[in-house]
């Protein structure tokens, strides 16, 4: 089979690999669509993974082989599946912190989504695999995993009907959060970014206001929009550590902040600690998704409550993965979500 194998920065090779053999309870899936995630791009650009490796995890495909004792799925089924799965029994899982489970990071699909065929291990089949509705395309299904990640983050928050929400970053995650907040009844959703194109996509997704931070001061903009009150909820959807300090300045008394995107491991941010006591603000972190978010994400997309089609700007073949990386990292290119196809 063919796969796009990462060897080094700027060195992704489209080459032949042995097609995986499946074992007891496992499933072999033919990849039909795989989203290019920001974490994939980060790994490629900063070489945070040990090469050679096949990346990709936002996968949709069709089952071509089923192992012994697989009862819920059959050859020909159109499916979604996740790459990580928790143990459900450790102290973290018992508290609902599924992504902190050590088993979560140890589990994975093989060899990765950017390949023609993928072996899905037994735990992933049992706990994360779902048949996708007939009215849902493979491309739409590639958006299930990122939407599930957003749902996992939203579940940490207390977003009430009529709240105001600031989403910092108008990338694919920011646009998903924008739609989610509107769906949950936020009265005013504000999206900030430096990209005119991405801010236009935010407006298309239902944002009530946008702030181009290359032209306008964010804190002053929020004060103007909220008449000095501040924002109820801020979501940091881009990996810029200084936004944490800005978000603390933007939120109202009793407000909450979700740190969704990862910061540089060496970054240090000074924030006004008095606000925790005087104003009872809250800051939450969120990483990845749980197995309990996937069926909800599928339902939201299949029922068009969340429109992911307008987010997909490019469809690129597997043998041109490096081209996809180049497009998404080029600020002159108008790209939002890139889907890789066989």
TrEMBL record:
Keyword check for Zinc: yes
Required cofactor(s): Zn(2+)
Pfam assignment, any one: ADH_N
One Gene Ontology MF term: zinc ion binding
This protein's UniProt keywords: Metal-binding, Oxidoreductase, Zinc
Gene3D superfamilies: Medium-chain alcohol dehydrogenases, catalytic domain, NAD(P)-binding Rossmann-like Domain
CDD domains linked: iditol_2_DH_like
Tagged with keyword RNA-binding: no
SMART domains, alphabetized: PKS_ER
Domain of life of the organism encoding this protein: Bacteria
InterPro entries: ADH-like_C (IPR013149), ADH-like_N (IPR013154), ADH_Zn_CS (IPR002328), ER (IPR020843), GroES-like_sf (IPR011032), NAD(P)-bd_dom_sf (IPR036291), Zn_alcohol_dh (IPR050129)
Domain (Enoyl reductase (ER)): residue spans on this chain: 10-318
Family in the record: Belongs to the zinc-containing alcohol dehydrogenase family.
Protein name: L-iditol 2-dehydrogenase
Species: Maledivibacter halophilus
Lineage start: Bacteria, Bacillati, Bacillota, Clostridia, Peptostreptococcales
